[in-house]
Amino acid sequence: MRNLITINSNIENLRIVEKFVDEVYDKYKFNDEIYGNILIATMEAANNAILHGNKNDISKKVEIKVSKTKNLIQLTIKDEGPGFDYKNIPDPTAPENIEKINGRGIFLMEKLSDKIEFKENGRIVKLTFRIK
Predict the structure, then answer these.
(1) Exposure string (b/e) for 91-109, b if CB count within 10 Å is 16 or more?
(2) CA–CA gap between residue 40 and residue 96 (Å, rounded)
(3) CATH assignment, 4-130
């Protein structure tokens, strides 16, 4: 199994990301609930990297890396964009945002992962999941 994949910023390449998460699941054998959380959070991060970070520029890459320690799986998603102000994300559950079609990705990643970190001005998202 690969520990790293690099894709062009094309939304169709999310299929490659999904296959990569499936490979991680097959290798480490965590439970189905954790698999679902990892899949959705990683897909959201990759989608954000393609659309918002790299602005659908197919010449720019998104890198996804997995690492495992005894009880943790970490996925790191990195884009080539300028970054963003991750400290001031609008709350998608606030009444003024509830009907907006965008703005739920980071909220989902926060709820599904055990820890989320942003590095390099938001160009890198690190998702951590506890496994048993």
Answers:
(1) eeeeeeeeeeeeeebbbbb
(2) 25
(3) 3.30.565.10
Q: How far is residue 37's CA from residue 108's CA, in Å, rounded to a whole number?
A: 9
Mean pLDDT in residue range 71-96: 88
Q: Looking at beta carbons, which pairs linking 107-111 to residues 24 or more positions away fall under 8 Å?
A: 108/40, 108/41, 108/44, 109/41, 109/44, 109/45
Q: Looking at the predicted structure, is the pLDDT value of residue 101 above 70?
A: no
- For the chain, give every domain's residue range: 4-130
- Asked if 58 and 9 touch (Cβ cutoff 8 Å), the reply is yes
Query: What is the torsion angle, in degrees rounded to the nearest 10, for the CA atoms of residue 72, residue 78, residue 82 and residue 86?
Result: -20
Residue 22 three-state SS: helix
- Who has greater pLDDT, 48 or 101? 48
